[in-house]
């Protein structure tokens, strides 16, 4: 069914298929046109991702150990040029997880950021190796688990520990009377407190949504259910206790890549990837539809350009990434 196309002012598909951006071309072929991974054009486009555009430019700046910038500055001191951030961007762009440079980056993060005691991911390295136990962050853990799954690490025991961390510790509190106590909750009140940080919830859901349905444990499914209901109670971007108010005005400006931040488009993408077509999502989907121009294209409204290793698109201009992600939302919601 193509009912979703009736929501478009014009069809931007041919624009997305242009060869200047092989990442967008690849995801358009597979996610919008539903071409098989065995399709010769899909296979060739996947190879082109590693040869043309942003991916090879980022990889050209990689150090021998698999990191970017100073090894110890994988998260904080080199925002958004450190290794954590490059892993997220490369995963978003569809870089090949079998490439040895990507494997080295994944292993660097697993060696330096993952807390050996819990399986969560930390913003600092511990003196004894691995990530600093008290520096584990929910949004970072979600982002790293998601990136590593995209790169083919789902069955790796270390990534399974990261998934288990999300299932065990991620909270979905919506203004409870007493903040949770004990590790990790007492270390990061901004992440947990009486109201869970939306970004932690979103990135946890993003990671768990990446797990194939037939490989989700009961705990994972339970966590997904709680996270989905949390977001639906907020109608994706509203305040649950006053639905006339927007939770964060910045979420109304669509960006790519979002790093630790989020927006209405990303959240809608995660929920529709999970198969949701709920009435409480309608306002958010209507917002997505409303932002297209007369050519059926969406603009890049928010960006960290100037702080990346390599700039990605141009703020205020039609964005192939935002347009692609909008089409995916509409296709899933209305098909």
How far apart lie the N and C ends? 6 Å
Percent of residues in β-strands: under 5%
What average pLDDT do the residues reach?
A: 97
Helical proportion, percent range: 40-55%
Q: What structural category arises from helix and sheet content?
A: mainly alpha
Order of helices and strands: HHHHHHHHHHEEHHEEH
Number of strands: 4
Please summarize the sheet with the most strands.
Answer: 2 strands, antiparallel
Strand order in the largest sheet? 1-2
Tally of helical segments:
13
The oligomeric state of the chains shown is single chain
Report the C-alpha radius of gyration, rounded: 19 Å
Quick one: overall form?
globular
Low-confidence stretches: none
Structural account:
The structure is a single chain. This protein starts with 12 loop residues before the first helix and ends with a helix. It contains 13 helices and four strands. The mean pLDDT is 97. The longest helix has 16 residues, at 218-233. It has a two-stranded antiparallel sheet with strand order 1-2. Helices cover 42% and strands 3% of the residues. Helix 9 crosses helix 10 (218-233). The chain has helices at 13-16, 22-32, 40-49, 54-59, 83-92, 100-112, 138-150, 157-169, 198-209, 218-233, 264-273, 282-290, 320-334, and strands at 238-239, 242-246, 298-299, 318-319.
